[in-house]
Each structure stands twice: as C-alpha cells, then as structure tokens.
Amino acid sequence: MIRSRRYLCGVPEILAVMGLVMVVGCTDDSGLAKRYSVTGTIKYNGAPVPKGTISFTPDKPDGRSAGGDIVDGKYSLSTTGAPNDGALPGKYKVSIKATEADTAELKAISKGGQFHHDKAFAKSVETAKKLVPSKYSLPDTSGLTAEVKAETNTFNYDLTD
Q1: Which one of 44, 55, 60, 73 has the lowest number of neighbouring Cβ atoms within 10 Å?
Q2: 28-32, 116-120, 154-158: least confidently modelled range
Q3: pTM (2 decimals)?
C-alpha cells in the first residue's frame, strides 16, 4: 500500500510539469514583447505596387525592426520572421524597395547546372527596373514614417515621383 501511495503522490507533480510544458510550448518563444498587427497598401502614382518589400526601422537605437513583402499593393509586417506577427509599439522610419529584375540569364545558367552566377546576378540587380523611385529605398530619404500603437494598425502609402 505504501508503495502505491508514493506512486500516486507523484502523479499530480508529473501532471503539473506536463501542463507547464504544454503552456510554455504554446507561447511565443522569441523573448520579445507583444507585437501588434501592421498591414496596409502601397501605391505608386495611384496604382498598387505589384511586388517589393517594406521595412520599418525603429527611431530608437535599441528598437527592433519589422518588415514584409508587398504583393499586389498589400503588405503585413513581421518582426521575428513568423508570418504576420506584427511590430512592436513605437515610432519608425519606413522604406520601400520594389524592383523587377530580368532573370532570364540566371535561369539559363541554373538550367545548365552552373552555380557560379555572381556576374549574372550583379547584372540583373544593376539593370533591374525600379517600380518606385530610389528615394523610398532608404529610411533616411523616404520621408515615410509610422507610429505603431498597441492595437491593430493600418498604414497606407501613396508614393509619387
């Protein structure tokens, strides 16, 4: 009898540890504070920007940046790389990069089984068509800002020349 009581006495402790492991396993393991949804649209001269990237660079040096892909003029931000996990509250400078590179030469090289295509890659980047003016590609020259608040956020940007 004593033996089974010892065994049964350990069951609640085991269940408690298992419950703790399950709770910890369901939380965000990034170590960051709560992030809030940030979505919006990007237009250039009134038309949705077909593809590109958007970056939110924090005003504070100890802040954490967030970014996302632009698809058909729409974006949502991520801080940790997990899709759409949002951004930390705070003030940000915003930059937008959108180019369309001619990758025909890269595709031809990859079909031929060659892996050293640095020159072809550099050429495609250099000759890429800019879908928005270059001034928007840097946080210090874009003139775009945002203040993420502890709520769902929407920031729409209408870019011009």
Answers
A1: 60
A2: 116-120
A3: 0.73
Percent of the chain topping pLDDT 90 = 58
Owning domain of residue 51: 38-99+130-159
Domain count, the chain: 1
CB 112 within 8 A of CB 104: no
Residues in the chain: 161
Burial of 35 (0-12, 13-18, 19+ CB in 10 A): buried
Q: Dihedral sign for Cα 63, 87, 51, 120, please.
A: positive
Contact between 144 and 94 under an 8 Å Cβ cutoff? The reply is yes
Tell whether the model's pLDDT for residue 120 goes beyond 80.
no
64 belongs to a structural domain: yes
CATH number at residue 140: 2.60.40
Crossing angle of helices 104-111 and 118-126, rounded to 10°: 160
